[in-house]
Predict the structure.
Amino acid sequence: MADQVRVRYAPSPTGEPHVGNMRTALFTWLFARNMGGIFILRIEDTDQSRKVEGVIEQFLDALRWLGMDWDEGPEVGGDHGPYIQSQRLAGYHQAADELLEAGEAYRCYCTIERLAEMRQEQNRLNRQTGYDRRCRHLSSQERRGREAERGEWVVRFAMPLEGTTRVTDLIRGEVSFENRLIDDFVILKSDGFPTYHLAVVVDDHKMEISHVLRAEEWLPSTPRHLLICRALGWEPPKFAHLPMILAPDRSKLSKRHGATSVLEYRQMGYLPNAMVNFLALMGWSLDDKTDLFSTGDLVRHFSIERVGRSGAVFNLDKLNWLNGHYTRQLTPEELTDRLLDYWRRYLPEEVPALPDGAYLLRIVPLIHERLKTLKDAAPLVAFFFKQEAQYESQELVQKGMDAEGTRLALSGALESLSGVKAFDADAIEAVLRPLAEDLGVKVGQLFGSLRIATTGLRVSPPLFETLEVLGKERSLAAVRDALARL
């Protein structure tokens, strides 16, 4: 095993890059960066029947979005490739042959039907389910007969029938498993592809992996992996099994609780640094009071010792709070760039076309403090990109007013605004506030009618600044249109 820290993130292209999977990637990446080690990306695609087209690209996309670069792997290369398991079959066959030769594994010729009947009988008798080892002690003559009869087989690992296997986990300490309770599991399938148990052991050895960080659901599989390593004479990596991510009701997080794919959160308008900060806090903490971490902070402070054992609750309110904080930290120029990038990927229906960056930069300060996500922006600013405001004429009439009073208020506003030479927010406010008193209406009534007339919204960005961005000509045209509707 290499002295240098070498870790791997090894997704399977059988489903989208969900939150738990990407949390594992993040902790693995942070550990590598903190230790000055190597972060390897490996695609575990040996389960060909469940492979989903396009999912590999989604994982690469998610890693890039969250800022996790890899030192070896697809698109990067390295000295331990190929980094896609379906391209590494020869190594798995060689390991299986060595295990067969040493008597640590055997060929199993049982049919699917026979195995189903076996499990059915075990269930009927209320016995532990698992392979009954029928093929483990076949004679050479019996094996030749089965091979001639069936022509195909799987390879099973011959588990020790007694004793215990102890796993020293960096998070959970020592965990023991009774060998007799683990059946002789398949390591090589009849289609020539390895199962996860063989492939992961071979690849971790060949790629000189020093530490494995993975979800706690893999802890019961660890004795299998240690025993394969032992049978092949290999030193295993060190293991750290990360706590499960739970829903607010403390059940396992699933789609019924909302979005689970990291890329769905990108589409919902969350910032990558907020998502990284949020994922890091699900199972790891620096202390009991610090919640805000830049990626650099996380790299400096991360250690496996600070990863907890108990399940981490997915708290959407916490994510929204973090995202709001990071959004407010952006400069207007940065937020404009983020919105343009977001709209290039997910152009909202409220915005007919990607706007001019300089024009959007004038709008962004009006909504900056109100955004929790990038998706929130479009409904607030859509009217800026349309020729006229969309509303029903009765919306112009504010509470406590009638149509005639509204007409008089808008006519006064039209006259006052027409006389403004420098059409900026201060000059607009200077003529509109006194106008309300002159007309004998409340400021809120006048501004409410003007807001509907110019934006079509009951709640909009600040009125005076909005009129400044819309410009004198368009603002006056909107008021004239409102009067015509009345």
